Amino acid sequence: MFHRFSSLIGFFGLVGLVALFAAPRADAQSTYRWEDPSTGRTVYSDHPPPQGTKNPPTVETYKEAPKKTSPQETLPYATRIAAEYYPVKLYTAASCGDACAQGRALLSERRVPFTEIKLDELSEEDFKKTAQQLGSATPTVPLLTVGSQKTIGLNAKAWHDMLDLADYPRTGVTPRAP
User: Check: CATH 3.40.30.10 for 71-165?
Assistant: First the structure.
């Protein structure tokens, strides 16, 4: 039984390899243009003209335009899902100094997409709204929110625990440059 199963896997693996190497390239296509001698019509085709065509064919090669991707699309799937359900916000201020820089570095090392909100750059009205959302008239920074959870101050273990609970991967993949 096992021998029959392993030979089936070998057969389908071989068929898959042959199909992979026999497949034409999809990133570029050539278009040929020539005049059909029997009808006098101009023909456009992805196949070369038949033998005996008087005018040499014009060959134009078209490559697929590169797809425009947002930075979010270049992230690993697990990170995109976590960011969708549990967005990360880092609240900072100019007076925060080294603690905020370390917090930014922690999130960057883990490759977590986050929004940094600089409290001292907000208008008075926006500051009041943000302070009310955070539950403090004068929020202490750095302050990290992951979804609806928050941690005040820089505590690497607590930050990693919150990110783990939100299913952010421990090690991210560096997004490719656009």
Answer: yes
